[in-house]
Amino acid sequence: MDVVVRCQDVKKTFGTRTALQDITVKIPSHQVVGILGPNGSGKSSLFRLILGLNQPDSGEISVLGRKPGWNNNHQIAYLPDRARWYGDHTVEGAFQWGMDLLPGFDASKANELADWMEIDKKMRVDGMSKGQEARLMLIMCLARNVPLIVLDEPFTGIDTPSRERIIDALIDRVTEREQTILISTHEIYEAEGLFDSVFFMNEGRVELSGPAEELRAKHGSMVELVGKMSHGGRGR
Ligand SMILES: Nc1ncnc2c1ncn2[C@@H]1O[C@H](COP(=O)(O)OP(=O)(O)OP(=O)(O)O)[C@@H](O)[C@H]1O
Question: Which of 90, 140, 153, 233 is the most exposed place for a label (fewest CB within 10 A)?
Fold first, then answer.
């Protein structure tokens, strides 16, 4: 199995709060990987370590075979939690900015994604609704030809019918698996079909992981599994 992220005994605390404890995982590459778990379980903290935005207190982490940090991040497209970036641009302006500054940004792919997500390219970003801006942020990441895409809650703010449409189309589009896509989301019911593998986090630990098919065969749907785990069942 090719591995995109390798963590060995990783621990991260913020003051008295433990965000991650004893994380030892190998996240497979060339897959769509769901990082699931309740609020505060450590998903965003793990992503921030992958990007090198925070350092672990102890343990080792490698991403695409290297230590995380600025010299690795040209290979990663990252959509952070609560991101709002392109305020004074139009959509086309954001795409131009992407071409100038984002490694691997493919404007024709961005245009195609904008048509498909029904985003008007002349629109100013500061006039967008939350859901339109969330779609633009998703496009800015998905249009990049980089080996790793990390999406932290990418569907938040997108209304249910649009979200379902976007996720269905993503399921159709990300079949080639040239890239690895890590997605954290609470929209498990809708997103379940996207995932090849899933890592369930709870209280800063990875409590269960594996190929989505295997987990489903053993435990039922992901929604049920997350429900059980969030209530202390650990899915085992
Ligand atoms: N910068 C920080 N300062 C203090 N505590 C933090 C910080 N970042 C994360 N934490 C704490 O670490 C724990 C894990 O937070 P994290 O944001 O990683 O969870 P999450 O699984 O992404 O949650 P959510 O689903 O709500 O986005 C929480 O208890 C949180 O309060």
Answer: 233
- pLDDT digits 0-9 by tens, 189-218: 888 888 999 999 999 999 999 999 999 888
Quote the ipTM score: 0.97
CB of 16 closer than 6 angstroms to any ligand 1 atom: no
Q: How far apart are the first and last CA of the chain?
A: 24
Sign for the pseudo-dihedral over CA of 217, 205, 180, 133: positive
State the Cα–Cα distance between residues 61 and 58, nearest whole angstrom. Answer: 10
Q: What is the pTM of this model?
A: 0.92
Beta-carbon contacts of 15 under 8 Å, excluding residues fewer than 6 positions away, are none
Establish whether residue 49 lines the binding site of ligand 1, counting it when its CB lies within 6 angstroms of any ligand atom: no
Label the pairing between strands 148-152 and 76-79. parallel
β-bridge mates for residue 152, sequence order: 184
Residue ID of nearest Cα to ligand 1 atom 6: 14
**Domains in the chain, start-ordered, CATH in brackets?**
3-232 (3.40.50.300)
> Does the C-beta of 185 come closer than 6 Å to ligand 1?
no
pLDDT at res. 235: 45
Ligand 1 centroid to Cα of residue 42, in Å, is 6
